[in-house]
Amino acid sequence: MRILWEDSSALVVCKPAGLLTQGAAGIETLETKLRAFLKERDSHPGEPYIGLPHRIDRPVSGAVLVARNIRATRRFGGQFQSRKIGKSYLALVAGEVAFDEGEWVDYLRKIPDRPVAEIVPAEHPEARRAVLRYRVLERRRSLRSNAPGEGSLEDGPVSLLSIELETGRMHQIRLQCSSRGYPILGDATYGSSLPFGPEVEDPRQRAIALHAREIRFRHPKSGVEVRVVAPLGDAWRGLTELE
């Protein structure tokens, strides 16, 4: 467990890509691994309390806020509901994003019986408004990827985006990027043909180039703002100057 910040009320952990935040009983998740880690580290006589007021997608890495008691869980839930918690992401996308910064507004819905979402007209009965703001941090005319069995290949221009979410819809960043012709590297679900991260046997454990970079929240006791930045993992090495 890579714990980035911690006190008696909460902690922020850096989730590795390929690991579910939460899941059904018997499945290894960030929740089960963190509970086992805290139980051993703290010699806890029972099951340590873990509250997860939010989640990030399985193939996404980065900062996850964890409450350590019921009171903190409720207060964080209120902060998320009133949009007082700030979340920013780093996304490495295929293509050269034309404008240095901007805002994307769409209407999304989850496709029934499938673990994916789609963009729909605003008047669709299941439509939910999705808003994000982006800023281009880096552009490259080409990116060399070492795809398994293919050697080094020229795979076209890429852009590194800093993304601030106003809303938190299912697969929002992934879908909004892809729908504009900028799929996130490694995200085959939403149209990427470029690899990212180490090769894995289980496709569910694949990483995509989306990282929950920073989370900002009010401490559940003191009300003081806390800002935590999650460093990039090894899969990002050589792809950006950021750490």
**Distance linking N and C termini:** 19 Å
DSSP E strands, number = 12
Overall mean pLDDT stands at 92
CATH class: Alpha Beta
Poorly predicted parts: 145-154
State the helix count.
3
Summarize the helices and strands and which ones pair or pack.
Layout: E1 3-6, E2 10-15, H1 30-41, E3 61-67, H2 70-81, E4 86-94, E5 101-110, E6 117-119, E7 128-140, E8 144-147, E9 151-154, E10 158-165, H3 172-179, E11 210-218, E12 225-229
Parallel strand pairs: 3-11
Antiparallel strand pairs: 1-2, 2-3, 4-10, 4-11, 5-6, 5-7, 7-10, 8-9, 11-12
Commentary on this structure:
The protein has 243 residues and is mainly β. It has a single domain (3-232), classed as Pseudouridine synthase. The chain is built from three helices and twelve strands; from the N terminus they run E-E-H-E-H-E-E-E-E-E-E-E-H-E-E. It has helices at residues 30-41, 70-81, 172-179, and strands spanning 3-6, 10-15, 61-67, 86-94, 101-110, 117-119, 128-140, 144-147, 151-154, 158-165, 210-218, 225-229. The strands form two sheets. Strands 1, 2, 3, 4, 5, 6, 7, 10, 11 and 12 form a ten-stranded mixed beta sheet that branches. A hairpin with a 3-residue loop joins strand 8 and strand 9 (151-154). The chain is globular and about 55 Å long. Residues 145-154 have low confidence and may be disordered.
